[in-house]
Amino acid sequence: MKKLKRSARLVEMTQYLLFRPHTLIPLTTFAERYSSAKSSISEDLVIIKEVFEEEGLGDLHTLAGAAGGVKFTPKMPKEASLSFIQNLCQKLQEPERILPGGYLYMSDIMGQPHYLNEIGKTFASAFANRDIDVIMTVETKGIPLAYATASFMNIPVVIVRRDSQVTEGSAVSINYVSGSDKRIKTMSLARRALKEEAKVLIIDDFMHVGGTIHGMMDLLKEFKGTVQGVGVFMESSEVEEHLVEDYVSLAKLNGVDSKTRKISVDLGNYFH
Questions:
Q1: What region, left, alpha or beta, does residue 257 occupy, with left being phi > 0 and alpha being psi -120 to 50 degrees?
Q2: What domain range includes position 266?
Q3: Peptide bond into 140 cis (omega under 30)
Q4: pLDDT digit string (tens) for the chain, length 272 residues
Q5: Shortest CA distance to 213 belongs to which of 171, 253, 248?
Q6: What is the pLDDT of residue 180?
Q7: Count of structural domains within the chain
Q8: Pair 66, 115 in one domain
Q9: CB burial of residue 101 (10 Å; 0-12, 13-18, 19+)
Q10: Is the model's pTM score more than 0.85?
Q11: How far apart are CA 107 and CA 194, in angstroms?
Q12: Domain with 69 in it: what CATH number?
């Protein structure tokens, strides 16, 4: 790359870091990329670090030594997440979201890149200090949330299927009890999708009783994996007890009244 003025270099370096979260980047990478001295690169990184922290974009960690460099950890201040989720809760209480059977329509939320981006960043912040190898979710509605979170944590996503896929090779399948209707269901995961003893973060869009998430936990045991955290966008408060105890929720559905056309949505436990 040609030698850039400092102002242009700062912009390019910032973009480089933002697109490579949780990645250790040696100072020599920047020095060679911009044909600049390491001392100049270090000064630039100090400026970027200050802006990241002041604007709540995340942390820029410096590791000393021959194998050192810088690593960007995206984080979203809880105050910013609180404001965003509060607005989202208001949107989710719109009467026209009520579907036959008392269900709540959320597909438009899960299809908006801006919403997914903010939700993913919030989950990434909530679990930033945990040692995680991979994000797990179950098809299909949890997939966008899992990938949004993974983009900020820079880790892969594995998808648990309702039925095994021929294109994914041999799979491990288990039966689990659905928390809502107590029916026996099946889920499977390709053997090649997850290495043994992986540290896993489970992400899902909605948790009623928690049967599906509990099933994923049981499935993980077949891979000798460990659950490092569970994040759900919305939980239901209309149950006496969840099958999953340790989890982070961003919103809570208190009830849907089809007769009065009223929906009650509050903040999840992440904000309490």
A1: beta
A2: 78-271
A3: yes
A4: 778 899 999 999 999 999 999 999 999 999 999 999 999 999 999 999 999 999 999 999 998 876 679 999 999 999 999 999 999 999 999 999 999 988 899 999 999 999 999 999 999 999 999 999 999 999 988 999 999 999 999 999 999 998 877 778 899 999 998 866 678 999 999 999 999 999 999 999 999 999 999 999 999 999 999 999 999 999 999 887 889 999 999 999 999 999 999 999 999 999 99
A5: 248
A6: 67
A7: 2
A8: no
A9: exposed
A10: yes
A11: 28
A12: 1.10.10.10
pLDDT value of residue 182: 77
104, part of any domain: yes
Confirm if 70 and 17 have CB atoms less than 8 A apart: yes
Written as one string, the DSSP assignment of 207-264 is ESSSHHHHHHHHHHHTTT-EEEEEEEEEEESSSS--S--S-EEEEEEEEEETTTTEEE
Residue 136 falls inside a structural domain: yes
Phi, psi of 86 (to 5 degrees): -60, -45
The amino acid occupying position 237 is S
